[in-house]
Write a structure and sequence with these properties.
CATH class of the domain at 103-270: Mainly Alpha
Helix content: over 70%
Radius of gyration: 28 Å
CATH superfamily of the domain at 103-270: MetI-like
Number of strands: 2
Number of helices: 15
Structural class: mainly alpha
Strand content: under 5%
């Protein structure tokens, strides 16, 4: 039977020597075919990205050197827009507020998510998938819906918070209209929106850690806090880096929540860079100055993200 199977196999036909030599010459003469094949597959996506992302970015950079109202021909002014920006109190105030919101968008959500992760590291609670979905839900709800809902919740006249305070004999306050409370209240809403993403990332990272490491640490006498520091935290260093970058970018590009809830007020207590960009470019029709703000905001995001990644590699090791 084995002989019959062997005989039934097709006999490979050897290629002529001149054809094999021709194919070798073709491969030797066109080495770029080997490394460029992948780029041919990426070409359609690169074209779409170039048309809808790179070209608008280049046009924004060009407009940042002009004085333009969006209708009349632009007038080249060089670096005047950038010089005016450095002397603009509104821009400096907006930048300070964006840096302030990093505390609520990045630091607090990551700390909360780390604490919850440490509590759930060795205890698999029933309904964990439901809780992860519920905590991640603010990330997928449209920002307009989030802003409208929280505006209703914090309404000092008929909102649920006001009703609860009245039930205890306390008076409500205009949470989003108070000069002392508006900014931290917006920050807490941002924390509520962000910490679920960090928690889901960290819990996903914990599932990749070998459970034998926890058992070995427990045998060595490490308590739960020590296990978290020497096993869990190094094991989720990649997810920690991702969470840092994403949350800091969200803090710098914060706009939708401000637009729906406070419009930068009261006064300029919640004024941020993205809202100033919108106001300058679309309300005051200073498109050239707005383009300069957009360029600076992009550079801030890229610079801060690169710095976070560099510091993460130095402290936590390579990804």
């Amino acid at each position: 039977m084995a002989r019959e199977i062997e005989q039934s196999r097709p006999i490979p036909v050897a290629q002529p020597a001149h054809r094999a030599r021709g194919q070798r010459r073709l491969r030797a003469g066109l080495p770029w075919l080997h490394w460029s094949t992948g780029y041919f597959y990426l070409l359609p996506a690169l074209i779409v990205y170039g048309v809808f992302a790179l070209l608008p970015m280049a046009d924004t950079l060009r407009a940042s050197f002009t004085q333009w109202d969006g209708l009349n021909p632009p007038v080249y002014v060089g670096l005047d827009n950038y010089a005016s920006m450095l002397q603009d109190p509104a821009f400096l105030t907006a930048l300070a507020h964006n840096l302030y919101f990093i505390i609520f968008s990045s630091v607090l959500p990551i700390l909360i998510a780390l604490v919850v992760t440490s509590l759930l590291t060795r205890r698999r609670l029933p309904g964990m998938t439901f809780f992860q979905t519920a905590l991640f839900l603010p990330q997928i709800i449209p920002i307009t819906v989030v802003g409208v809902v929280w505006t209703w919740i914090l309404n000092p006249a008929f909102g649920p918070v006001a009703e609860i305070l009245r039930a205890f004999g306390l008076s409500s306050r205009p949470w989003l209209g108070d000069f002392d409370l508006a900014r931290p209240v917006i920050g807490l809403i941002v924390t509520w929106m962000t910490y679920g993403l960090c928690l889901v990332l960290f819990l996903a990272g914990v599932q990749r850690i070998d459970t034998d490491l926890f058992d070995a640490a427990e045998i060595d006498g490490a308590n739960e806090f020590r296990q978290f520091m020497v096993v869990t935290l190094p094991g989720i260093r990649n997810e920690l880096g991702v969470a840092l970058v994403i949350t800091m970018i969200e803090a710098l590009r914060l706009f939708g929540l401000i637009f729906v809830t406070t419009q930068g007020g009261p006064g300029k207590e919640t004024y941020v860079i993205a809202f100033q960009l919108y106001q300058v470019a679309f309300i005051e029709t200073q498109v050239g100055y707005g383009a300069a703000i957009a360029v600076v905001l992009t550079l801030l995001i890229v610079g801060l993200s690169s710095s976070v990644l560099w510091l993460h590699r130095r402290v936590m090791g390579d990804w």
